[in-house]
## 1
Amino acid sequence: MQSILGASALTAMPYASLANKDYSIVQLLESVSAKTTGSLFGFRVDPIDKVRVGIIGLGNRGNTLLEMFQWLVENDRAEIVGLADINEKKVIAAKEKLSVWQKTAPQTFSKGKNNWKNLAKQDDVDLLVIATPWELHTPMAIYGMNQGKHVACEVPIAYTIQDCWDLVQTAEETKKHCVMLENCCYNEEELFVLNMVENGVFGDLTHVEGAYLHDLRALMLSEDYYEDQWRLKHHISRDGNFYTTHGLGPLSYYLKIGRGDTYSHLTSMSSRELNLSRTAQQQNSKFTQFKCGDMNTTLIKTALGKTIMLQFDVHTGRPYSRINKVVGTKAVHDGYPSRLYIDGEEPEFWGHNWLNNEEYNEYKTKYNHPLFNQLKEISENFKQGHGGMDFVMIYRLITCLNLGLPLDINLYDGVMWSAITPLSELSVAEKSKSIPIPDFTSGQWKATNSLEIMRSF
Ligand SMILES: NC(=O)c1ccc[n+]([C@@H]2O[C@H](COP(=O)([O-])OP(=O)(O)OC[C@H]3O[C@@H](n4cnc5c(N)ncnc54)[C@H](O)[C@@H]3O)[C@@H](O)[C@H]2O)c1
């Protein structure tokens, strides 16, 4: 596995020796920076009437994404022209699934670990969708853009800080869309909260909390679920928050990160590891020792002084949660389950209770995001996509391309939300040292642009 900062940083300064060196982390982070300009805010390309799509990676996620295209294919807005995976059986199964709702057969690519490049080179591909293991995301996205393709990549889009810079430089130079497919930004609860934030219900925000708390022990320890148990292997050699974007994407929209505010610095701490190894031993797994702590907590401060608490735990048995807490001067929201507190204007109306069901539902009716309402009927047929949000995400992506509009999630969003992983690893390894967060936008975050996800069309 690569170093946190990327291959060139590893050569320049071995990561293992960081703790003992007199060095500046700022210098280190900047030393791997590429030539970037921040020129892709508001980026749009000419309308593409029917988006021709190639999918790389047809495992669990690639299959769900494929299914999300059904309505768009049937309505002539997209066509699946190519399918690639190193596992031939998965390609054949996906092709069969597609044949039920698309007349033309896609080309298939399953001969070896580099065969996906032939799909990326095809002239008839507009958009490459990438749903492979994490460390392949950036190389595949960069190769795709260099072949003249727009790319839409699963989370996280980057794995090292060098990846982040390389993605920004390549997208800016090739002038291609490079979007991270962060589906949680399109979940009904997050869109409802965002709509309230945008309409001033919370007043001014001071603090938010998010997470990826998901018991993945059974799936990670299974020898069949993830190809070659790739996901478990990260837990053997790394420690930090590996899955930042499900929580951080929506929170960053609430805080207008990249649109008037940005991350300044972070500190990160991991608990001891107990639960994954205990379960692995009980199950006689071939892997039983893990470096990643059961719970990672990362604190991020923004340039405008707001704070973010982000947690990551996939080792502990517990109900799923992304927390989704928003604290503002006028209201507070807590997720899982969604609850709302509205502060009274006078002291006699200050309270300690969440709104009751009836009061909450009034807010829900008033502020449910128009996008979710608009697509509810169609997306109800696609419930397998995490309760509808996956369909809304793919619908928005393809519709923006059909109409030639800027995408909801821009290049810098995906890179900034992903960069927190390697930076959290660096902080954990350095006894929670405060780590400055590089500015991947070349200062363009200062422009108070509105959120594309709030547009209706
Ligand atoms: N957004 C979400 O809700 C969500 C949910 C699940 C997974 N994911 C993301 O999706 C990605 C894939 O996860 P998954 O659960 O589908 O894993 P998976 O192991 O089921 O699928 C990965 C696929 O990539 C293929 N692959 C590996 N190397 C390849 C290569 N060189 N060329 C072509 N194909 C190759 C594998 O054969 C496998 O089929 C991950 O990045 C994960 O984080 C996102």
## 2
Amino acid sequence: MRERLVKAVALLTSTAAIAAASGLVPLPAPHPPPDRWWKGNLHTHSLWSDGRAFPETVVSWYKRHGYHFLALSDHNVLQEGERWVTVPSDGWQQWALTVYRDEFGPEWVETRRKNGRLQVRLKTLAELRTRFEEPDRFLLIAGEEITDRCGGRPVHLNATNLKDLVLPQGGQTVAEAIRNNVRAVRHQARLLRRPILVHLNHPNYGWAVRTEDLIEVTEERFFEVFNGHPGVHNEGDEQHISTEQMWDEALIGRLLEDPQAVLYGLATDDAHWYQNADRQRPIPGRGWIMVRAAYLTPWAIVRAIKTGDFYASTGVTLARVDHSDEAIVVEVQPEANARYVIEFIGAVKPTDSTQRPQAEVLKRVAGVKATYRFRGNELYVRARITSNQPPDYPIHPHDREKAWVQPVVPAR
Ligand SMILES: [Zn+2]
Ligand SMILES: [Zn+2]
């Protein structure tokens, strides 16, 4: 009897209790809550790397603005261990310290003098969690921007819900560097048996990533179709296609070979700047994802993203996104005075193998609700919703609020 009891206690300790204590997996509920939409951003910087604010200032901004989850994704570093930053008597760090002290008070802010210079200790992710997390309201997920280079070109990937730092893996080509970093993240996920998301950042930054790279590295299933940093060329230029065009080209190139090799699109902020809402700066609030899940936990959120159950947004909120073998249904949650266009974009399978499919608008509806019925010959179909209203923090004066629904490969 005693032995059985000991065993039972040991089992409890090893599974449910640890899971509950770590906050990583939900405890089994008799009636699981229904799925709902959670708003979050997976790409943000703080003073742990080159972000110009203390992490609390960053996290507080997102929580106050109604986000449910956030990953601080500093360059090649996790927010752990003892770390002090020097605050010079002139410069932007003074602003950062002033707003930090004003919001969090002298009891929370830790300072010291070293060699006559003022230093402030950066709080760790664990400390930030105790301060900000609330069940069903706000969640922090561990993040890192794996910041690699290849032939002088930036190759950046974000890992979300990782435990251990992933060092940049390098490679002979950009495609190889992407693949090596994706594999390093996957290795950790397998080893630790936890879902970790790895997504490719801002392909047009430094014109580093070409469409061919996106086609080739099918191990990577996520990329930023929108990144809020003004320096990353989401829209391309005279010589380069936009990230959205890259998405279609990559989908066609991949899906012709393998119908499983879908590429999903995220919108993120890549915020570095929190001082004022200057259009030229990488400020927060420009791009996010809406994830459908029952629970607000790292596991539930990352798993839902990995199955493609999310959409990307720069301002448009959707009341409904559903797809079946027959159709995709999209319904907008309209804002006052806004008008919307819903476009279903996809490519039709070629009738003979010499033809290369082209992405096109397969259906276009002006309004807040639209259904696309599969004809059976599509390689994939995705939806883009465009408002006639500018976003809260536009990069360009012509920007309009958008949402991107993930591509669906119809069952054949
Ligand atoms: Zn980057
Ligand atoms: Zn970044």
